Amino acid sequence: MQLDKISPEAFEKIIEMAAFSLDGEEKAYLLEQLNHQLQSVQELLNIPLEDETESPLARIPRVGDQPRSDDWQAFEKPREIIAMATQNEDGMILVPEPASGKELA
Amino acid sequence: MSYTKLSALDIAQKVQAGELKALDMLEASLAQIQAVDGDFGQLDGQVTDPNTDKKVHAFISLTKDLALAQAEAVDAKVQKGEDAGLLAGVPVSIKDIFALDGTVTTAASRMLHNYRAPYTATAVQKLIDAGALIVGKVNLDEFTFGSSNESSAYQPASNNPWNTAHVPGGSSGGSAAAVAAEETPLSLGTDTGGSIRQPAAFCGVVGLKPSYGRISRYGLIAFASSLDCPGPLARNVPDAALMLQVMAGSDQRDENTSILPVPNYLEAIQQDVKGLRIGLSPDYAGIAYPNPETGAFEVIPVQREVNQAVLDAAECLAKLGAEIVEDVPMPHTRYGIPVYFVVSRIEAASNLNRMDGVKYGFSVVDPKDLQDLYRRTRSEGFGMQPKLRILMGAYLSASSKNLNYYQLASQVRAMVRKDFDLAFDATGAHRLDALLTPTTPTSAFKRAELFGDSVLMQYADQMTVSVNHAGLPAVTVPAGLDDAGLPIGIQLIGNDFREDTILRVANAYEQATSDAAWRKIRPMALQEVK
Predict the structure, then answer these.
(1) Which of B162, B176, B387, B488 has the fewest CB within 10 Å, making it most exposed?
(2) How far apart are CA B62 and CA B137, in angstroms?
(3) d(CA A18, CA B375)
(4) A86 to chain B: which residues are within 8 Å by CB?
């Protein structure tokens, strides 16, 4: 199987999905680099795969093996977190309205 | 002898014994930073120092007040005859990707230029609890995305102390540069595909990537969550072992931390290497790189001096009683980078979706609507390398009509791991205790030589990245200088949670070569410092 290069049309869709707004110079560089990276990814398609798919990390005896109790723990400094939001009021984060008739990316 | 030349172990012992005050040690560290670092990295950085090209530029910010309070607390404990901790009075720098309560934590990105962390990362807290003095935050590639430090939004980016026209490597380049330039004896870095080991090798210091889960990731701004590992950079192996000792262990705030007990690394490294089986593999002799014009893969051999350093180290270890096992097959090593292009990009894109200009960090002024806020914030806040990684992650996540890239890469990742399983299998053909390889294919490259070529830059990590896929520990130690006078690193890879074994081998090698002529040579950036 041969990977196709990313077309300019497909590239525009990815930009939309990633919520970017790029100029022409940026687009040219990024598209060239993406297609070069895909040449590397192409190698994966030529490997005879084995059945084994166990994550290398699955064998670690870890804290998460025992589900922790579902206890609510209040953060001690919530105001500091809220204060970092660009717009906030009465302990709430404010955001601009979405553009009417458009789905969020 | 200047205090800044002391090892972390010596500093802690002297401070605890009352022979050296933590305050004096802090003063020495800050004076060294003043002497060698030059302008700190800053957004839209303006260079004020006419000798800026000869400076190290490891730091983004200092945390003097914090360090001063910590030093006073350590000295007070010693005065009262109390235990001041394993790192009593030891200056430590922190890669600016770790949260430290009350400090700006930038990830070297405009996106987080104003993000003041409201809590402290577990690894950093453990250092503080052990008596370390946190002197400041050091530079890195933006969001850790790079292998040279050049992608930092905080300029000037770090230089290599051995030759400041060369890069320090990355992404923990500021950490490696700070340790090599004797600004701090220890630095906390992170390693996702080689980001501790590659800069450590380039700067002639020791860098340890622990097993995945050995050190908590809580408070680390995530790049690729299944690969990220915090770890130490130090000037010698015992110091790296000491720092690991302090930071290792389980953490309820990172469910992927291991519950396995933490060995005594400082004791373990005192053992000799008699009878240990050290492997060499032909699959680490070169990198397979896709030609940008044709797409055909070309094998580029490892730099001659680097290859020779590995062979010399094997000979040295053999003389110490280790058994060298040649021709260990690691056939899936060459797929490490292609797998990384998929796994790391998809995870990075997912992790960076949270940077939207709403909750914290950079945000544009007067957005028309929510979509405009997202797009303009992300476009102006991220540099080119994060954009490239996000776009690649978005493409690979989305184009799954006939192909699930992440699943495919995960299958190959398991095959990469299987190579190691076979090599370390105690009943197998090779029965290795450690695999000895180059850390990097070349010594440090010049600034601007590779920057912009995201593929060739990534392939510089081919010797290190398989270890991240497999979740294994690996350490790089200095092993000489090349013909240009730049450091060479050799890598020792161990089995799961066998940091004790690879540190033991590394320490034996370090001790055996302690009188080597190249160890007497000092980095260029230090030669003018009295």
Answers:
(1) B387
(2) 6
(3) 8
(4) 357-358, 363
Is any Cβ of chain A less than 8 angstroms from the Cβ of B69? no
Of A43, A52, A84, the CB nearest to B360: A84
pLDDT for res A104: 53
Who contacts B165 (Cβ-Cβ below 8 Å, separation ≥6)? B53, B159, B446, B447
C-beta atoms of B295 and A99 within 8 A: no
DSSP state of B141: S
Is residue B264 exposed (0-12), middle (13-18) or buried (19+ Cβ within 10 Å)? exposed
User: Which pair of tokens denotes residue B323?
Assistant: 């058994």
Average pLDDT, chain A: 88
Q: Which residues of A touch B396 (CB under 8 A)?
A: 41
Which tokens sit at B402? Answer: 């006939």
CB-hemisphere CA count at 13 Å for B330?
32
Decide if B368 and A19 are in contact by the 8 Å CB cutoff.
no
Residue B311 tokens read as 């062979």
Residue B195: active-site member: yes
CA B235, CA B5: separation in Å to the nearest integer? 10
**Is B7 annotated as catalytic?**
no
The per-residue DSSP string of B68-127 comes to HHHHHHHHHHHHTT----TTTT-EEEEETTB--TTSB--TTSGGGTT-B-SS--HHHHHH
Could you give the 3-state DSSP secondary structure of residue B426?
coil
Could you give the ipTM of this predicted complex? Answer: 0.93
DSSP state of A93: E
- Residues 338 through 357 of chain B touching chain A, CB cutoff 8 Å: 338-339, 341-342, 349, 356-357
Block means of pLDDT (10 residues each) for chain B, 530 residues, are 94 98 98 96 84 94 98 98 98 98 97 96 98 98 96 97 97 98 98 98 98 98 96 98 98 95 98 98 92 83 98 98 98 96 97 95 95 96 97 87 86 95 97 98 95 89 97 98 98 98 98 98 85
Residue in chain B nearest A41 by alpha carbon = B338
Cα–Cα distance for residue pair B405/B382, rounded to 1 Å: 25
- Annotated catalytic, B5? no
B42 touches chain A (CB under 8 A): no
CB contact under 8 A, A57 and B415: no
**Angle B332-B333-B336 from CA coordinates, rounded to 5°:** 100
